[in-house]
Design brief:
The chain has nine helices and 13 strands. By secondary structure, it is an alpha+beta fold. It folds into two domains: 154 residues, 60s Ribosomal Protein L30, Chain: A; 168 residues, Phosphoribosyl-aminoimidazole Synthetase, Chain A, domain 2 (Alpha-Beta Complex), CATH 3.90.650. The strands form three sheets. The protein has a seven-stranded mixed sheet with strand order 8-10-7-11-9-12-13. The chain has a four-stranded mixed sheet with strand order 1-6-4-5, with helices on one face. Strand 12 and strand 13 form a beta hairpin. Helix 2 packs across helix 4, helix 3 runs parallel beside helix 4 and helix 6 packs antiparallel against helix 9.
Amino acid sequence: MTTVAKATDLDGRVLLDHGTGAALSQELVRLIADTLGEAYVGEMEDSATLTVPGNRIAMTTDSFVVDPPFFGNGDIGKIAVCGTVNDLAVSGATPMYLTLGLILETGLPIKWLVRALESIRDTAIEAGVLIVGGDTKVVRAGEADGLYVNTAGIGAFRRDPLRMDAVQPGDSVILSGHIGNHTVHLLSIREGLGFEQRVLSDCAPLNGLIDDVFAKAPAGSVRSMRDVTRGGLSAVLHEYATRLCRVVTVDLPALPIQTETAMAADMLGINPLHCANEGCLALFVSPAAEADVLTALRNHPYGVNAAVIGTVTDRPGTDVLLRDGDGRESVLEELVGAELPRLC
């Protein structure tokens, strides 16, 4: 008979009995809690009691099914923490707490699970958030493709929330870094293109970067921001243009796109403007604060490639226009149903 100790040995695999709620389940939960270490509050109650300053909170949730789940400079665990932390931070909230839900497929190597948990732990510590609760389910082989992760996050507002409607005509559009790298990195691994060593995923928790921006920029000058994830920069810009009923222009030569990313995207027949990212911000900023925001971004490790890439115009409409080096404008079409799957 298989012993509990062997069932969660690092050379073992997840068993269907790990999901029964009995002894093997408890052993798996202990493994998860021990691996998360100081990032986990460890109360093991049915719900967590949390202290949140002020009277307003931000809450978000997301699920992660990235393929492959482990890649060159990250994995599904890191993406899960980054995605949730970043969603809270771009609203103006300070991320504080996460929950962690795991869907494990029977046969998943225990060492893969531990690797993902270690990434969750390390990224949570970097972001300054605590994991306060979670859930684990085990499904039969073939039903979950290894490992899926769900996270929910809570943040506290210590400053006014950021809203799209605060953006004004004349505001500058700033990107915090390269676009397209995350998509190209994963697709290169999937397709065996060999770019993954030169083009790394940008996956990162951005709340520290955002705090630096707010510390440097004059009050009220950062109107709104978004993390540039699924649908890419194009999706973000179209969302703002539609909400504001104002044309947004983008200067193509100003876009921060790594040379190897552009080469790989051309080979794959994809547009970096439509590519998913996991560590990039689009900020909408008063033109008077441009220099302060760029300085704050470029002084942070996650913002060294920041650039002003466009403007919210006073022209009525919902188009996003691309302006080339000669001043010619073309419409950036919104992506419809062609997004690449399982990038986050």
